[in-house]
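hiii so um. not sure if this is the right channel but i have a protein structure encoded as tokens and i wanna go backwards to a sequence. like what aa goes where. can anyone help
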């Protein structure tokens, strides 16, 4: 049976990525050795990470002022890394608090200095994106989360920031066009929309670095990874290979602009059904709805077992919502085809016919 994987992360990837990764596990580049047992300094391994970095630059139109690095520790290690690299001794930073991941980013940054939460949607269980706030000019940087994976909200535009803007784009990087030059740092754990788990990407404006007066551990210093071209220590070759293949696939689809159109079509179809169908209610404020993660609940929980059985029968998997929201969450990352959304919509329609 065909499976429709709506997982919030690690995400669905294109079949061609799985096929090539599987082959590389058996024999990488006809070398007689598996990609799992080779040095990260072997020529064809270096080519993998170089290609992946170049593809991020190309697909996101990264300007010369910025560089792209791959690190480990996921987005979670980027939370303190950002503060380490940008928050001066005795300095201050401004954060928006728009979800669980933003909370974690704030918590980690607080270890390094004063954090001012300039806007929050916690009062409504993060079901909207705060607007109308002003980013202060007396802080070292401003941090926001572009897409709130758990709550299903997404920033449709970014504020004008008088200080470097840092953004956690873990769950919507490469899903829509972004003007990278507006950001000091963009970072993302790979496993939401970029590849398998095992790496994080950071796009860093180079001239912001080296100014905090802090004694930064080598690994957590962006300058280290820029200088060593992401090969400071042993990086996970198989994980970055997966990222590289997925980026090559994205390029073949026509790049970010092309996939953004498909993502809009998927989200439109999904939200149209949530709004039309009397048995479901969307949990995020309409204007702030995420194109990546659509969150919704059953109006009558008594029918949950019936709906779940119908999903299972249709091959729809990983649709359960995060425990902080409950209900359902349809994650529609780049690799999820429109067809999968259509299958889910069809199940919702049939469910309404049976139980509505
Ligand atoms: C998943 C997620 C994270 C955490 O990512 P890890 O790579 O698991 O550390 C951070 N921010 C956002 C927006 C996420 O969706």
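sure thing!! here u go:
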């Amino acid at each position: 049976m065909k499976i429709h994987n709506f997982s919030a992360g690690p995400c669905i990837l294109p079949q061609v990525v799985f096929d090539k990764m599987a082959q590389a596990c058996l024999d990488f580049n006809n070398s007689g050795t598996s990609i799992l047992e080779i040095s990260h300094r072997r020529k064809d391994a270096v080519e993998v990470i170089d290609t992946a970095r170049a593809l991020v630059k190309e697909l996101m139109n990264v300007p010369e002022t910025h560089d792209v690095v791959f690190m480990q520790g996921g987005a979670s290690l980027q939370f303190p890394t950002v503060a380490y690299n940008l928050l001066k001794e005795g300095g201050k930073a401004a954060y928006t608090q728009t979800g669980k991941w933003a909370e974690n980013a704030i918590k980690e940054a607080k270890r390094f200095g004063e954090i001012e939460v300039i806007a929050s949607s916690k009062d409504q269980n993060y079901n909207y994106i705060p607007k109308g706030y002003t980013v202060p000019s007396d802080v070292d940087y401003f941090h926001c989360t572009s897409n709130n994976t758990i709550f299903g909200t997404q920033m449709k535009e970014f504020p004008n920031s008088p200080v470097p803007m840092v953004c956690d784009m873990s769950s919507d990087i490469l899903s829509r066009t972004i003007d990278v030059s507006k950001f000091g740092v963009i970072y993302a754990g790979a496993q939401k929309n970029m590849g398998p788990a095992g790496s994080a990407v950071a796009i860093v404006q180079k001239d912001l670095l080296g100014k905090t007066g802090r004694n930064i551990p080598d690994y957590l210093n962006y300058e280290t990874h820029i200088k060593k071209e992401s090969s400071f220590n042993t990086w996970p070759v198989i994980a970055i290979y997966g990222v590289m293949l997925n980026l090559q696939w994205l390029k073949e689809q026509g790049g970010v602009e092309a996939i953004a159109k498909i993502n809009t079509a998927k989200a439109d179809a999904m939200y149209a059904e949530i709004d039309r169908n009397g048995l479901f209610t969307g949990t995020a404020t309409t204007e702030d709805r995420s194109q990546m993660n659509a969150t919704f609940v059953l109006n009558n929980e008594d029918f949950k077992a019936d709906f779940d059985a119908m999903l299972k029968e249709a091959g729809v998997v990983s649709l359960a919502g995060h425990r902080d929201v409950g209900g359902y969450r349809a994650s529609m990352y780049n690799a999820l085809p429109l067809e999968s959304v259509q299958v889910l919509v069809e199940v919702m329609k049939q469910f309404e016919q049976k139980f509505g």
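oh and The chain has a mean pLDDT of 98.
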